[in-house]
Design a protein that fits this description.
One of its GO terms (biological process) is tRNA modification. By secondary structure, the protein is an alpha/beta fold. The protein has helices spanning about 5-20, 35-50, 65-80, 95-115, 125-135, 140-145, 165-170, 190-205, 210-240, 245-250, 255-265, 275-285, and strands at about 30, 50-60, 85-90, 120, 150, 155, 240, 245, 295, 310-315, 320-325.
Length: about 350
């Protein structure tokens, strides 16, 4: 296909070209394509830049006519020079429809990619919305860094491109992209941020808000890479088999220590959902007064051998452990025993 040389399509192509320069060697890719403007423009940009593209259209089956939408998205991708496939998935499981659909979509893309990189059509506007939602929820720097341009196997070449450009690029190509009704449903917080909050901020602050939020995400990602490396090194020094040495942890800066604790807790099967939980575990390290165990959540559907029990973080003889308890306090995990109440005895 001969691609028109329009400003919007050129911005998409330059974004893809710049992304390839940062992540060299990825010439054969899978693109997750919904048929919307962003993913359709991404397919066009990749094909125009000479990449071998396989567009995978995931049909969630959540709306009437979803099969027709998926077929049209695949046809558009093929017209742009990609090969295309439609994958139908079942959306089920905990966390609501959005979370279940995201899990099903990611699993389908990973299976279809068969080890190849998977590109997604997130734009600068999506990045700004993610940062703003994180700020409103009191998220830390790890969440405010938002989406990465490359986090294997996921790539996002269009994080510097505005949504208006992807829409214009589709118009330049003579393609009418699919408009997902969910993207106009004000029941979703992200939709209200997109349609109400960001436009108001742009008006009050006289423009540039989306760009500023995206710059904030990039700067936080640079900072987070340094802190994450320090936390990994700390975790290696503090490990004592399945436990952590609290003395080694206590000497570390708080930002590094809490990152190390969070990584260790997740590795041990805990789902740390609140800042209060992480701080309570941190208190077992630096504010030890003989307090009892800290209850931890578990990812849905994990560790069925606990029979409805729970995970707890405990301190015992200067070491931090994750233990499994039944609801009556009986230890269920043979790898870790619960700590006694009261101060440590050495």
């Amino acid at each position: 296909m001969r691609f028109p040389e329009t400003p919007a399509l050129q911005r998409v192509r330059l974004a893809v070209r710049g992304w390839r320069a940062e992540v060299p060697g990825l010439d054969v890719v899978v693109v997750g394509c919904s048929g919307g403007a962003d993913s359709t423009a991404l397919v066009a940009g990749c094909c125009a830049e000479g990449m071998t593209v396989r567009a995978v259209v995931v049909d969630h089956g959540l709306q009437a006519g979803s099969a027709d939408v998926a077929a049209a998205a695949a046809a558009h991708a093929e017209a742009l020079g990609a090969t295309a496939a439609v994958v139908r998935v079942d959306v089920a499981g905990p966390g609501g429809v959005e979370a279940a659909a995201r899990r099903a979509r990611q699993a389908a893309l990973l299976a279809a990619a068969d080890g190849r990189p998977i590109l997604l059509g997130h734009t600068l506007d999506d990045q700004a919305e993610t940062v703003l939602l994180g700020l409103g929820r009191g998220a830390g720097a790890g969440s405010l860094q938002a989406m990465a341009a490359w986090s294997e196997p996921w790539g996002r070449p269009l994080l510097g491109v505005r949504r208006a450009d992807t829409l214009a690029a589709c118009a330049d190509l003579g393609i009418e992209p699919w408009a997902d009704p969910h993207n106009a449903d004000s029941r979703f917080a992200r939709v209200r941020v997109r349609t109400e909050v960001l436009p108001l901020l742009e008006d009050v602050l006289q423009g540039g808000v989306a760009d500023a939020l995206a710059r904030t995400a990039r700067r936080l990602r640079e900072d987070e890479e340094v802190l994450a490396a320090s936390a990994t090194e700390l975790l290696a020094r503090a490990r004592r088999a399945s436990a952590l040495d609290t003395g080694t942890l206590a000497d570390a800066p708080v930002a590094v220590r809490r990152r190390a604790l969070l990584a260790w807790l997740r590795d041990r099967g805990a789902d740390v959902r609140t800042d209060a939980t992480l701080r309570a575990v941190d208190d077992l390290v630096v504010r030890w007064r003989g307090q009892g165990a800290v209850a931890l959540a578990e990812p849905p559907g994990t560790r069925p051998e606990l029979g409805g029990g729970r995970l707890v973080a405990v301190r015992r003889h200067g070491k931090l452990e994750v233990a499994g308890h039944s609801r009556d306090g009986r230890p269920l995990d043979p790898l870790d025993s619960p700590a006694p109440d009261g101060p440590e005895q050495h």
